Every structure is written in structure tokens, then in C-alpha cells.
């Protein structure tokens, strides 16, 4: 498993009984965690006095219950990468901390390239990977169908001290965008994609990952430059294993560019007991 360690202002403290206890900056939060099917003794005192708890509704969705006063949002800093943290609907905080392990990988390849690098970040959410790639020196095209998430990403870029010229922001359906980029002849040295299990584009376009993913990655491979650096495919979809994603990259990107593909679960270590919470899977292609 690839473990995202080294966080300075985030900690996964403990998990169990379908929940996780985390520290985001100075605040302690409890959120639902379907992977945590084990029991926790809940010895850490913040299980009993968190700042906020997210409760799921039996009808779908859920709500935050605030035990103390919290700011509407706050900022955490990870070696100059700064992110606005905000309790949102569906238990989200505006950041997936387990992705640090992938940001470090991409950033290392960008820095080592010692040349101009263009990166395409698809289904880019609030721009964690965008900030990391831009901070490493890349020009990033950030694409997401949600205008609100793109605005959030822009705030993270500004917070991290990156100029507007380092990122191009696009609010669009990712499938339609890559098809247009292919027609335009635009190329990228790295592609990052974090597709949802199910989604709708701004004009009602429907995305179902099992039906769409292979063809989508095939189209993305057409956007790679003659000397590409990497492709990162990430997923939180239950049933879409690391091995499945590895096969997809082998049959698309490696078929054209050779290189190597690796894949594994990604996770976060719990400070309370040293165990690791699985948090999705990733597959990586890089050129030899």
C-alpha cells in the first residue's frame, strides 16, 4: 500500500465502528468511514469532545452537528501547499489527504524533468493535485464540471502563492473537453484523472465509470506529448481494483509509450495505533 505520511497539519487519529477521528489544523472532526468496519476502543478523548460530527441520514446525504464554534473555513499548510478546508455536504472537507502520496510522486517527476512540463488534471475537484504540480514547476490545465469546485481550486492556487499564469481553469464535462483538445492538437506531458463512480456534466451528461473508463483513458492517451512523463489514474469506486486500473493503463498508455505501470491501494496511517486505513486505489504510468 502507498501510505500518505508526512502531513504537518492533518492527522488521522483513529477509526472504527464506521467512523474516523481526524485533526484538521486545530480542529477535531468525526466523519463517516465505511471502510472502518472494525471496533475501536475510542481511548482518545477527542472521540467524546470533537469540534464537529457529520451524521448520515437514512434518506441519503446527512448533516454536520457542531459541538463548538468553528470558522466557516480555515487553511492548512503542507510545505507551502496551502488548502482551504471547509466542512461541506456529503462529509467532504475540500481535500483528500491520502492523495499526498500521489502529489509527491507527480511533483518529483516534474522537478526531475528539468524542462517545461504541461499537466492536465481531469475531474480535478478543489485542485490538490493542481497545486502540487504547479508548485513543482508545471503549467496545469485544471478541468472540473463544477463551477464551485473550480473556484475553490483557484483559491488554493492563490493561497499557495502561485501566479495565475501557472494554471488554466476550465468548467466543463471532462469527456467533451478531451475530445476538443484532441481535435485542437493540444498535448500534455502528464495527465491526472480522478473520475467519479457516477456523475453529470454541466449540460446533463451522464458518467458511469464501469462503462466509460477504458474508452476515456484511451482518448486521454491521444493527448500525451511525444515525450510524456506520467499518467495517474485514481479511484474511490468500490469494485474498481488497483489491478483493474493497472490493466487499463497497460492496454492504453503502455501500449503506445512502453514505460512501466504500478498500482496499489492508497491509505492513511492512524496515529493512535499505527494501523492503516485504506482510502481508494491508484495506478501510475511513467516513462523509463
Topology:
Elements (H helix, E strand, L loop, with lengths): L1 E2 L6 E7 L2 E6 L2 E6 L19 E5 L5 E5 L7 E5 L2 E5 L14 H14 L4 E5 L5 H8 L3 E6 L2 H13 L7 E5 L2 H11 L5 E4 L4 E3 L5 E3 H13 L8 E6 L6 H16 L2 E10 L6 E11 L2
Parallel strand pairs: 1-16, 4-5, 9-10, 9-12, 10-11, 12-15
Antiparallel strand pairs: 2-3, 3-4, 5-6, 7-8, 13-14, 15-17, 16-17
Helix percent reads 25-40%
Please tell me the total number of domains. 2
N-C termini distance:
22 Å
And the CATH topology of the largest domain?
Answer: Rossmann fold
Structure description:
The mean pLDDT is 96. This protein is α/β, with parallel strands linked by helices. The protein folds into two domains: 2-91, Golgi alpha-mannosidase II (Immunoglobulin-like, Sandwich); 97-286, Vaccinia Virus protein VP39 (Rossmann fold), CATH 3.40.50. The chain contains six helices and 17 strands. The chain has helices at 100-113, 128-135, 147-159, 174-184, 209-221, 242-257; strands at residues 2-3, 10-16, 19-24, 27-32, 52-56, 62-66, 74-78, 81-85, 118-122, 139-144, 167-171, 190-193, 198-200, 206-208, 230-235, 260-269, 276-286.
Amino acid at each position: 500500500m502507498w501510505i500518505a505520511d508526512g502531513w504537518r497539519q492533518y492527522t488521522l487519529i483513529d477509526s472504527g465502528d464506521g467512523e474516523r477521528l481526524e485533526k484538521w489544523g486545530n480542529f477535531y472532526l468525526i466523519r463517516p468511514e465505511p471502510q472502518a468496519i472494525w471496533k475501536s476502543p475510542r481511548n482518545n478523548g477527542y472521540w467524546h469532545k470533537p469540534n464537529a460530527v457529520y451524521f448520515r441520514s437514512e434518506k441519503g446525504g446527512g448533516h454536520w452537528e457542531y459541538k463548538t464554534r468553528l470558522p466557516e473555513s480555515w487553511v492548512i499548510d503542507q510545505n507551502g501547499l496551502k488548502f482551504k478546508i471547509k466542512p461541506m455536504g456529503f462529509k467532504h472537507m475540500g481535500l483528500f489527504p491520502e492523495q499526498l502520496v500521489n502529489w509527491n510522486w507527480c511533483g518529483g517527476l516534474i522537478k526531475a524533468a528539468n524542462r517545461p512540463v504541461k499537466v492536465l488534471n481531469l475531474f480535478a475537484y478543489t485542485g490538490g493535485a493542481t497545486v502540487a504540480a504547479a508548485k513543482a514547476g508545471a503549467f496545469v490545465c485544471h478541468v472540473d464540471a463544477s463551477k464551485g469546485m473550480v473556484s475553490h481550486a483557484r483559491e488554493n492556487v492563490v493561497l499557495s502563492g502561485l501566479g495565475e499564469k501557472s494554471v488554466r481553469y476550465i468548467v466543463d464535462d471532462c469527456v467533451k473537453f478531451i475530445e476538443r483538445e484532441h481535435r485542437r492538437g493540444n498535448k500534455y506531458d502528464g495527465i491526472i484523472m480522478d473520475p467519479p463512480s457516477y456523475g453529470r456534466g454541466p449540460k446533463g451528461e451522464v458518467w458511469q465509470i464501469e462503462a466509460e473508463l477504458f474508452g476515456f483513458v484511451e482518448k486521454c492517451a491521444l493527448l500525451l506529448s511525444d515525450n510524456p512523463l506520467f499518467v495517474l489514474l485514481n479511484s474511490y469506486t468500490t469494485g474498481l481494483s488497483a489491478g483493474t486500473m493497472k490493466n487499463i493503463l497497460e492496454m492504453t498508455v503502455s501500449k503506445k509509450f512502453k514505460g512501466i505501470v504500478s498500482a496499489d491501494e492508497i491509505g492513511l496511517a492512524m496515529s493512535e495505533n499505527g494501523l492503516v486505513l485504506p482510502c481508494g486505489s491508484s495506478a501510475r504510468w511513467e516513462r523509463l
